[in-house]
Amino acid sequence: MNEIKVIAFVGMPGAGKSLCIEYLEKKGIPSVYFGGITVDEVKARGLEVNEKNENFVRQDIRTNEGKDAYATRMINKIDSFASEGHDKVVADGLYSWTEYKIFKEQYGDNVTIIAITAPRHLRHERLAKRPVRPLTKEEAVSREYSEIENLEKGGPIANADYTIVNDSSSEDMLVKLDQILKEIGF
Q1: Residue ranges per domain, the chain?
Q2: Surface-to-core class of residue 48, CB atoms within 10 Å of its CB (0-12 exposed, 13-18 middle, 19+ buried)
Q3: What pLDDT, in 10s, does the model give residues 124-175?
Q4: What is the DSSP letter of 9?
Q5: Lowest CB count within 10 Å: 29, 69, 70, 171, which one?
Q6: What residues contact 138, with CB distance under 8 A and at least 6 apart?
Q7: Where are any strands of DSSP class E within the chain?
Q8: H or E segment at 101?
């Protein structure tokens, strides 16, 4: 199997992770999406895709399959890209401290964790305006609390290899991302 380099983006909802993923996908780099596991499971259970059901399913998967359930599923997807000959992949939305540790153990120096951060008020504005699954301020706050308290999301953000502050334009953020990509040879 091909040795693969992985970039995993971490950050709170609305920080700008999706913009970074789309940017790298346009460069031909395949991606895997942690949140896709949740959305697929919500649909498989015949539930409406909304914040309440997503939160329930996220917690249910981790309760029934263990804190490492998402990481295990994502590693399988990443490794399938390696077996297809890809040498790079992007992981969107690594959430928990457990997932962080598993990724570091699995990929060692071949995984780079990049935190995308933004002031809370900007994240809430972005979440309210996004075209797919917009969130009200109350839904955004509920999701933030759940992700911090239940998923230990703060650890991966605090311990990221790099941090990009996304508090101005999209273009500015992508310039910062390009600088990191150049530095790590990605």
Answers
A1: 5-178
A2: exposed
A3: 999 999 988 899 999 999 989 988 988 789 999 999 999 999 999 999 999 9
A4: E
A5: 171
A6: none
A7: 5-10, 31-33, 88-92, 111-117, 162-165
A8: helix 97-107
Binning the chain into helix, strand and coil, the percentages to the nearest 5 are 60, 15, 25
Sequence length of the chain is 186
Fold that domain 5-178 belongs to in CATH: Rossmann fold (3.40.50)
Give the whole-angstrom CA distance, residue 58 versus residue 64. 10
Residue 28, helix vs strand vs coil: coil
What gap in Å lies between CA 81 and CA 88, rounded to an integer?
8
Beta bridge partners of 117: 165
* Tally of CA atoms within 13 A in the half-sphere of 143 that contains its CB: 26
The residue type of 114 is: I
Looking up tokens 């839904």, which residue turns up?
Answer: 139
pTM of the model: 0.88
Place of tokens 């939305």: 93
